[in-house]
Amino acid sequence: MYRELRGVELPEEVQRAETLVAHGLVDGVVPPERLARTVARALAVLADPPGPAGLPDPERPAEPVDAWEAVLRSRAPDRPGTEAVLAAADLGLLELAAPDSALVRALARFGGQPAVVVGQRAGAERPFTAPICAACAGPPGWPSSWACRW
């Protein structure tokens, strides 16, 4: 299928487990002796009944924010990053990606409420800045953003 669509063979290393792990496409490989504990932690975050939800303070209603203002706030250098969010999680945090992965994926609870956390790790190489693989660049005229990043 790949060859039919792109006109070239799929690079041999693309579908190897080592390549997928190296590029953050596999959340984790767990040794058999840790599998039961890892599954138990995941289920504790996802399946245990949530704690009581905190109610918004009616005395402090949320103020509407302009879309561009929200973007600027998200880029503020003093804004807490993903690591600070993970540090604020209740006990039982389960990271699903390697600690050096640029993209953080984790299961966590905050105030007893289950959550899936996705964020960028500060200082890590971002997948979207990685060089494009010449074998996967696609046909002439395709946007470079559609190309494989391996």
Radius of gyration, in Å, reads 20 Å
Helix fraction, binned, reads: 25-40%
Main-sheet strand order equals 1-2-3
Question: What integer is the average pLDDT?
Answer: 75
Low-confidence stretches: 128-143, 145-150
- Please outline the major beta sheet: 3 strands, antiparallel
Number of helices, where a helix is a run of at least 4 consecutive DSSP H or I residues? 5
Order of helices and strands: HHHHHEEE
Strand content: 5-15%
Strand segment tally: 3
Secondary-structure-based class equals alpha+beta
Give the end-to-end Cα distance, rounded to a whole number of Å: 19 Å
**What is the overall silhouette?**
extended
Task: Describe what you observe in this structure.
The protein is an alpha+beta fold. Helix content is about 25%, strand content about 10%. The protein is extended, with a radius of gyration of 20 Å. The model is unreliable at about 130-145 and about 145-150 (pLDDT under 50).
How would you concisely characterize the structure shown here?
The protein is an alpha+beta fold. 27% of the residues lie in helices and 12% in strands.
Keywords for this entry:
single chain; 150 residues; alpha+beta; three-stranded antiparallel beta sheet; 5 helices; 27% helix; disordered C terminus
Compile the SSE list and pairings.
Elements: H1 2-6, H2 17-22, H3 32-46, H4 67-74, H5 82-87, E1 94-95, E2 103-110, E3 113-120
Antiparallel strand pairs: 1-2, 2-3
